[in-house]
Amino acid sequence: MANTFIMIKPDGVKRAIIGELISRFEEKGYRLIAAKMVTITNELADQHYQEHRNKEYYPGLKEYITSGPVFAMVWAGEDIVEQSRILIGATDPAQAKVGTIRADFGTDKRRNVIHSSDSLENARREINLFFSAL
Ligand code: ADP
Ligand code: MG
Question: The whole model's pTM is what?
């Protein structure tokens, strides 16, 4: 059993698909541990996306991720870190497999609706960043 950090990005919150996305994880049998609406500050964006700060797309990514509230969550389940990456699909919605969240709801490489930690180590780091009491 592991925990991971999943976040519905500003485009997902604005389009009112939080419930639908939560259902996809519940239907897989995963358990919602914690959730909250957060507006990401510039400082939190820099920390969360620390590996991306020098990328050419980072200014656009930062503007997008701070543009409105996100819905931050902790989920638990068997192999959830790997499995939730499969459920959300590839970064670019145009490349994401049919039936994945990003294929169904993503707009482009930046506005891809949802984040999910890519490793156990990053899951721990991101959970601590957003839910310091956990
Ligand atoms: P993922 O979210 O699939 O783990 P990355 O860690 O590579 O993807 O990138 C983090 C986020 O940065 C992406 O989800 C997306 O919002 C944005 N992003 C990544 N690559 C690009 C790009 N080439 N152009 C615009 N935005 C990007
Ligand atoms: Mg990533």
Answer: 0.97
